[in-house]
């Protein structure tokens, strides 16, 4: 009977938004399972901290500054990673923004533009660029998009964020169908509320906390390390038949 293989040994993985939260947890999990990891975000300080911790645990990690909404930064991130390691095998689209929390009809145009730039345009272009690189390399590849249960059921006050995450889910399925024949798997993870800096505004709101706990069967929010295991599964041979999948990790909220 074949063994279940979660190894990422000799794989090269890029994790955007890798300086904290879910991205940091995924980067550390990938390194734990043997991958050479590149972490990317807008500021080097947070990246160096994560890279240092991975190295201290015996892993290999390179920090590269890249804005998830800027095309030239995405191109540079992929090119530098290949220059350093000779190949790219896994790309995790995790960098995201949510500058406005409030009524849909009151969403300011600058907040709309910024959210679309990072959460949608940036994700889409990263999928395109990564898939082209994988095809050029000739040995397949793996793209994991971090979406959200907001893309399946929008919450009050998060209209534009939820809109972009719904787009990410359909983007994932579209790329999976078209890139599958090239040996490229494209999947998504849809977390519920997870304790991160990004979700701080929601967690600080007592009314939101009460509403969340009332509808969550587990009566709590998640932790980043409860999300990263799914990324390891999707990136590894153990998840080799997963393509176009959306893994919901929300403590049962969607149930």
What is this entry, summarized?
The chain has 255 residues and is α/β, with parallel strands linked by helices.
Walk me through what this model shows:
The protein is of the alpha/beta class. It has one domain: NAD(P)-binding Rossmann-like Domain (Rossmann fold). It has eight helices and seven strands. It has helices at residues 21-32, 44-56, 71-85, 109-137, 159-179, 200-204, 206-215, 225-235, and strands at residues 12-16, 36-41, 60-65, 90-93, 141-146, 184-191, 246-249. Strand 4 (90-93), helix 4 and strand 5 form a beta-alpha-beta unit. Helix 3 (71-85) runs parallel beside helix 4 (109-137). It starts with 11 loop residues before the first strand and ends in a 6-residue tail after the last strand.
Q: Which structural class should the secondary elements be placed in?
A: alpha/beta
> What is the overall silhouette?
globular
Radius of gyration: 17 Å
Average pLDDT reading: 93
Q: What's the number of helices?
A: 8
Largest sheet: 7 strands, parallel
> How many DSSP-defined strands?
7
- Element-level helix/strand string: EHEHEHEHEHEHHHE
CATH architecture: 3-Layer(aba) Sandwich
User: Which CATH class applies here?
Assistant: Alpha Beta
The domain tally reads 1
Q: Extract low-pLDDT stretches.
A: none
Cα(first) to Cα(last) distance is 34 Å
CATH fold label: Rossmann fold
Cross-sheet strand order for the largest sheet: 3-2-1-4-5-6-7
Approximate helicity band: 40-55%
CATH superfamily: NAD(P)-binding Rossmann-like Domain
- How much strand? 15-25%
């Amino acid at each position: 009977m074949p063994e279940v293989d979660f190894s990422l040994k000799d794989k090269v993985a890029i994790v955007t938004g890798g300086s904290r939260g879910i991205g940091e947890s995924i980067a550390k999990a990938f390194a734990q399972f043997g991958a050479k990891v590149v972490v990317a975000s807008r500021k080097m300080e947070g990246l160096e901290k994560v890279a240092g911790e991975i190295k201290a645990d015996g892993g290999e990690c390179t920090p590269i500054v890249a804005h998830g909404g800027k095309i030239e930064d995405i191109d540079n991130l992929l090119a530098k990673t290949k220059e350093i390691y000779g190949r790219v095998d896994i790309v995790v689209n995790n960098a995201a923004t949510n500058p406005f929390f409030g009524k849909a009809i009151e969403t300011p145009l600058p907040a709309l533009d910024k959210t679309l730039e990072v959460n949608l345009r940036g994700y889409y272009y990263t999928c395109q660029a990564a898939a082209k690189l994988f095809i050029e390399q000739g040995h397949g590849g793996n793209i994991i998009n971090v979406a959200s249960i907001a893309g399946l059921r929008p919450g009050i006050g998060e209209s534009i964020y939820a809109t972009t995450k719904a787009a990410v889910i359909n983007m994932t399925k579209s790329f999976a169908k078209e890139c599958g024949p090239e040996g490229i798997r494209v999947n998504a993870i849809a977390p519920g509320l997870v304790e991160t800096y990004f979700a701080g505004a929601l967690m600080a709101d007592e009314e939101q906390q009460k509403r969340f706990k009332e509808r969550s069967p587990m009566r709590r929010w998640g932790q980043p390390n409860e999300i990263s295991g799914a990324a390891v599964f999707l990136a590894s041979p153990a998840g080799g038949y997963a393509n176009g999948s959306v893994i919901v990790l929300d403590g049962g909220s969607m149930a």
